[in-house]
Design goal:
Elements lengths: L2 E6 L1 E2 L1 H16 L15 E7 L5 E10 L3 E7 L21 E5 L10 E2 L1 H15 L4 E9 L7 E9 L2
Antiparallel strand pairs: 1-9, 2-3, 3-8, 4-9, 5-6, 5-8, 6-7
Length: about 160
Amino acid sequence: MSAELELSFRPDDQLTEVMRLRVQSLQQRDQKRQDGERLLLPNEAVYRLDFSKQSLRFSHWTVRLAQAGRLTVTATSQLWTPDLTNLMTRQLLEPAGVFWRAQGDASDAPVQCYEADAHEFGERIAELAKVRKVMYFLFAFAEGCSPETADCSITFTVDS
Protein backbone atom coordinates (compact mmCIF):
# COMPACT_ATOMS: atom_id res chain seq x y z
CA MET A 1 0.00 0.00 0.00
CA SER A 2 1.32 3.44 -0.81
CA ALA A 3 1.14 6.35 1.60
CA GLU A 4 0.80 10.04 0.84
CA LEU A 5 3.43 12.58 1.86
CA GLU A 6 2.59 16.29 1.91
CA LEU A 7 5.58 18.63 1.95
CA SER A 8 5.23 22.33 2.66
CA PHE A 9 7.43 24.87 0.95
CA ARG A 10 9.33 26.77 3.64
CA PRO A 11 10.85 30.22 3.24
CA ASP A 12 14.64 30.23 3.35
CA ASP A 13 15.08 33.67 4.90
CA GLN A 14 18.85 33.38 5.17
CA LEU A 15 19.35 32.52 1.50
CA THR A 16 16.84 35.20 0.44
CA GLU A 17 18.82 37.75 2.48
CA VAL A 18 22.14 36.66 0.93
CA MET A 19 20.66 37.09 -2.55
CA ARG A 20 19.22 40.51 -1.65
CA LEU A 21 22.64 41.57 -0.35
CA ARG A 22 24.16 40.51 -3.68
CA VAL A 23 21.77 42.85 -5.53
CA GLN A 24 22.48 45.65 -3.04
CA SER A 25 26.23 45.15 -3.32
CA LEU A 26 26.13 45.37 -7.13
CA GLN A 27 24.01 48.53 -6.95
CA GLN A 28 26.27 50.21 -4.40
CA ARG A 29 29.37 49.49 -6.47
CA ASP A 30 27.58 50.38 -9.70
CA GLN A 31 28.53 46.98 -11.12
CA LYS A 32 26.65 44.72 -13.49
CA ARG A 33 25.61 41.15 -12.75
CA GLN A 34 27.68 38.28 -14.09
CA ASP A 35 26.77 37.21 -17.61
CA GLY A 36 23.78 34.87 -17.23
CA GLU A 37 23.35 35.57 -13.51
CA ARG A 38 19.78 35.62 -12.18
CA LEU A 39 19.34 38.29 -9.52
CA LEU A 40 16.52 38.15 -7.01
CA LEU A 41 13.73 40.63 -7.79
CA PRO A 42 12.10 42.66 -4.98
CA ASN A 43 8.87 40.59 -5.19
CA GLU A 44 10.72 37.25 -4.98
CA ALA A 45 11.90 35.06 -2.13
CA VAL A 46 13.76 31.75 -1.91
CA TYR A 47 11.82 28.77 -0.57
CA ARG A 48 12.97 25.22 0.06
CA LEU A 49 11.53 21.75 0.07
CA ASP A 50 13.17 19.10 2.25
CA PHE A 51 12.64 15.52 1.12
CA SER A 52 12.38 12.94 3.89
CA LYS A 53 11.82 10.19 1.30
CA GLN A 54 13.32 9.82 -2.18
CA SER A 55 11.01 7.45 -4.04
CA LEU A 56 8.03 9.67 -4.80
CA ARG A 57 5.29 10.06 -7.37
CA PHE A 58 3.57 13.42 -7.79
CA SER A 59 -0.03 13.51 -6.58
CA HIS A 60 -1.25 17.12 -6.33
CA TRP A 61 -0.59 20.71 -5.35
CA THR A 62 -2.27 22.51 -2.46
CA VAL A 63 -2.06 26.26 -2.92
CA ARG A 64 -4.01 28.70 -0.79
CA LEU A 65 -4.14 32.39 -1.64
CA ALA A 66 -5.99 34.44 0.98
CA GLN A 67 -6.76 37.17 -1.53
CA ALA A 68 -6.56 37.93 -5.24
CA GLY A 69 -3.05 37.61 -6.60
CA ARG A 70 -0.58 35.49 -8.53
CA LEU A 71 2.11 33.13 -7.25
CA THR A 72 4.78 31.81 -9.61
CA VAL A 73 6.96 28.96 -8.33
CA THR A 74 10.19 28.25 -10.23
CA ALA A 75 12.52 25.40 -9.34
CA THR A 76 16.29 25.55 -9.44
CA SER A 77 18.39 22.70 -10.79
CA GLN A 78 20.56 20.49 -8.63
CA LEU A 79 23.62 22.19 -10.16
CA TRP A 80 23.03 25.28 -8.01
CA THR A 81 24.94 25.24 -4.74
CA PRO A 82 23.74 28.45 -3.07
CA ASP A 83 26.60 28.62 -0.61
CA LEU A 84 29.19 28.50 -3.42
CA THR A 85 27.79 30.08 -6.57
CA ASN A 86 25.46 32.78 -7.79
CA LEU A 87 22.18 31.65 -9.34
CA MET A 88 22.36 31.52 -13.13
CA THR A 89 19.35 31.70 -15.45
CA ARG A 90 20.28 28.33 -16.97
CA GLN A 91 19.72 26.79 -13.52
CA LEU A 92 16.01 27.66 -13.51
CA LEU A 93 13.77 24.78 -14.51
CA GLU A 94 10.71 24.89 -16.73
CA PRO A 95 7.80 24.82 -16.59
CA ALA A 96 7.10 27.02 -13.60
CA GLY A 97 3.98 26.58 -11.50
CA VAL A 98 1.65 29.56 -11.88
CA PHE A 99 -1.24 29.83 -9.43
CA TRP A 100 -3.72 32.68 -9.09
CA ARG A 101 -6.93 33.92 -7.56
CA ALA A 102 -8.84 36.50 -9.59
CA GLN A 103 -10.43 39.60 -8.14
CA GLY A 104 -14.03 38.75 -7.29
CA ASP A 105 -13.45 34.99 -6.85
CA ALA A 106 -15.35 33.55 -3.90
CA SER A 107 -13.12 32.96 -0.89
CA ASP A 108 -13.84 29.22 -1.09
CA ALA A 109 -13.24 29.02 -4.86
CA PRO A 110 -10.24 26.85 -5.77
CA VAL A 111 -7.03 28.59 -6.76
CA GLN A 112 -6.56 28.47 -10.53
CA CYS A 113 -3.45 27.25 -12.35
CA TYR A 114 -2.18 26.09 -15.72
CA GLU A 115 -2.96 22.46 -14.94
CA ALA A 116 -0.73 20.74 -17.50
CA ASP A 117 2.28 22.86 -16.49
CA ALA A 118 1.58 22.39 -12.78
CA HIS A 119 1.31 18.61 -13.25
CA GLU A 120 4.51 18.41 -15.31
CA PHE A 121 6.25 20.61 -12.73
CA GLY A 122 5.14 18.31 -9.90
CA GLU A 123 6.38 15.24 -11.78
CA ARG A 124 9.71 16.95 -12.38
CA ILE A 125 10.09 17.70 -8.66
CA ALA A 126 9.34 14.02 -7.87
CA GLU A 127 12.07 12.97 -10.33
CA LEU A 128 14.60 15.34 -8.79
CA ALA A 129 13.69 14.15 -5.27
CA LYS A 130 15.25 10.80 -6.17
CA VAL A 131 18.71 12.40 -6.14
CA ARG A 132 18.25 15.33 -3.73
CA LYS A 133 17.45 15.88 -0.08
CA VAL A 134 16.73 19.60 -0.52
CA MET A 135 15.45 21.62 -3.44
CA TYR A 136 15.32 25.41 -3.77
CA PHE A 137 12.60 27.49 -5.45
CA LEU A 138 11.99 31.10 -6.35
CA PHE A 139 8.55 32.28 -5.30
CA ALA A 140 7.41 35.39 -7.17
CA PHE A 141 4.50 37.24 -5.57
CA ALA A 142 2.41 39.52 -7.79
CA GLU A 143 -0.92 41.27 -8.19
CA GLY A 144 -1.67 41.44 -4.46
CA CYS A 145 -0.17 38.11 -3.44
CA SER A 146 2.47 38.17 -0.67
CA PRO A 147 4.31 35.67 1.54
CA GLU A 148 1.77 36.44 4.28
CA THR A 149 -1.24 35.60 2.07
CA ALA A 150 0.10 32.50 0.28
CA ASP A 151 0.58 28.94 1.44
CA CYS A 152 1.89 26.21 -0.83
CA SER A 153 2.51 22.48 -0.45
CA ILE A 154 2.93 19.52 -2.73
CA THR A 155 1.67 16.00 -2.11
CA PHE A 156 3.38 12.83 -3.32
CA THR A 157 2.58 9.15 -3.21
CA VAL A 158 5.44 7.30 -1.55
CA ASP A 159 6.56 4.23 -3.49
CA SER A 160 7.14 1.41 -1.05
